[in-house]
Design a protein that fits this description.
By secondary structure, this protein is an all-alpha fold. It is built from seven helices and no strands.
């Protein structure tokens, strides 16, 4: 084997410029992307585009509003209806109203919501089979409204 006495390739200004671009370009792209996202009006209010980040930062410090007990109960009962069946959800609705009389004024709307959800999940005929005299047959009214 013979060794050639070729000179090593020259590492000149083109290579240095390439390395600089390779280091600076990603930083530049990240910064410009961040600025683009920060200037988008995410609130949907066309009139308030100047201080979008400031407004969202102010709202972040506000405490979350507590949800009403009947809203929490409705969500729990609808989940129960989907995971088990409407009969169980209706039984638990009746138990909650008996335990907390303040929920009685919401009983009809809760039972109707359960009736509508039951129709979506089981169809009108099968949903009607779960009907019980909870809250003056509001469940059946919800089933009827949905069909």
């Amino acid at each position: 084997m013979t060794h050639s006495n070729k000179p090593l390739p020259r590492r000149g200004p083109a290579r240095r410029i390439g390395r600089t671009i390779a280091l600076v370009l990603p930083v530049f792209l990240v910064l410009t992307g961040t600025m683009a996202v920060a200037t988008v009006n995410w609130s949907g209010n066309p009139g308030n585009s100047s201080s979008v980040l400031t407004a969202s930062a102010e709202r972040a410090s506000e405490p979350a509003k507590a949800r009403a007990p009947h809203t929490l109960l409705r969500d729990r009962l609808l989940t129960e209806l989907q995971e088990k069946d409407p009969g169980i959800a209706l039984t638990h609705l009746q138990q909650e109203v008996n335990a907390r009389p303040s929920l009685a004024k919401h009983c009809v709307s809760l039972a109707r919501a359960l009736g509508r959800a039951a129709v979506k999940q089981y169809g009108p005929t099968r949903a009607q089979s779960f009907s019980r005299p909870v809250c003056d047959t509001a469940f059946a009214a919800g089933v009827a409204q949905q069909t």
